[in-house]
Design goal:
By secondary structure, the protein is mainly beta. It contains four helices and 24 strands. 6% of the residues lie in helices and 38% in strands. It is elongated, with a radius of gyration of 25 Å.
């Protein structure tokens, strides 16, 4: 049998890069590379792509310079959540395999990239909690939610929308939520860092205004929430969590006036948005572990993120920013109709969050 000399084997593959596929396929990865040098009479017959971590690997063989990994079973099963991988590529021709490429930059299985406009299909929603995935059934209680076609009207999103509905019971709630408990949505970013670099939060909502169930809460609308979890002890020497809420009717510019109905509304909040008073219409508020208890009557008004960070005194009161909360991480973001908001039929979409290197936009589709 003829043995080809080593010089006949392909050169080394270069420029190996990986990229995020889509929200629905976030446990997959696209790998691309540049073909190596080769002899004209010995064309490359295949490429072996290997993406590995300290504990496992994924491998495929392809004939061109692009491959998708994590979309199959066994050695090409979806990547493991929160596991770091790098990829190498080896070219093969009739003479044999060349040297493996340098590894790609690392990526983390299942993690969203720091920036992106993500389309969330209804098929990717789940009934039970899974880290890093939008879900709604565990939030439903007696309420309901479903992705549906856009509601017509000025300012209507071009995409499909999430319908959030509560019955006439004060116990109902409904919402859509992206959660990463007990980890961090923003890959370990402390809440203090998130606030310091916060630039915007926004979403759109539509509220049906003809009291379809005869018990509609006239003032409220879907709210935006961050849940912050801290492993550090609170005053009771226990791990703690706090929910930070932006509710349109109790924040500028409505300041206690009913949320508009019958038209699309755009909620946009920056670090300085809020109020200069603690009159109950203070912009952001918190619900736990800031000394006010966990009830609507005792929720703490924080005014703006700027005032919360600085601890400025306003109206004789000082905004509270306990260190154990500032050292926590954001483990969920959501748009919800909370309890004690009966009889609402609302729609939401275009959820956006931006802080530091993170700039995310989420839209929802029935596809």
């Amino acid at each position: 049998m003829y043995r080809y000399p080593e010089s006949c084997k392909p050169g080394t593959v270069t420029n190996v890069q990986t990229s995020f596929v889509s929200y629905a396929n976030r446990f997959q990865r696209t790998v691309e590379w540049s073909a190596p040098s080769q002899l004209p009479e010995l064309e490359i017959t295949s490429y072996n792509v290997n993406c590995s971590s300290d504990v496992d690997f994924r491998v495929v063989q392809v004939e061109n310079t692009r491959a998708t990994l994590g979309d199959g079973v066994s050695e090409n099963a979806p990547f493991n959540l929160d596991t770091s991988y790098t990829c190498t590529v080896t070219a093969t021709n009739t003479a044999g395999a060349g040297a493996p490429s340098d590894p790609s930059d690392p990526f983390v299985g299942g993690r969203l990239p720091q920036t992106g406009d993500f389309i969330v299909p209804q098929s990717s929603f789940i009934e039970d909690y899974l880290p890093g995935q939008w879900f709604y059934s565990t939030l439903a209680s007696g309420g309901s939610q479903i992705i549906t076609n856009p509601v017509p009207g000025e300012g209507s999103p071009a995409d499909d929308v999430v319908e959030l509905t509560t019955t006439c019971s004060n116990d109902d709630l409904a919402g859509v939520k992206l959660s990463y408990f007990p980890g961090s949505i923003f890959n370990g970013m402390l809440f203090s860092e998130f606030l310091a670099n916060f630039s915007r939060m926004s979403y759109k909502y539509y509220k049906v205004g003809d009291d379809p169930q005869g018990c509609t809460s006239s003032v409220t609308s879907p709210t935006f929430k961050f849940e912050v979890f801290s492993q550090k002890a609170d005053d009771n020497d226990e791990p703690s969590y706090t929910t930070f809420v932006w509710e349109p009717y109790s924040a500028p510019p409505l300041n206690g006036s009913p949320a508009p109905s019958g038209s699309w509304q755009s909620v946009q909040v920056s670090k300085s948005d809020g109020t200069t008073t603690f009159d109950g219409n203070g912009g952001w508020r918190s619900t736990r572990d800031l000394g006010q208890g966990n009830s609507f009557q005792n929720q703490a008004s924080l005014a703006t993120w700027e005032s919360f960070l600085s601890g400025n005194e306003i109206d004789g009161k000082t905004t509270s920013s306990p260190q154990f909360i500032m050292d926590g991480v954001i483990w969920s973001i959501s748009v919800e109709i909370g309890r004690f908001n009966p009889g609402l039929v609302t729609y939401t979409n275009d959820i956006q969050v931006s802080s530091g290197d993170y700039d995310w936009s989420f839209t929802f589709t029935t596809e």
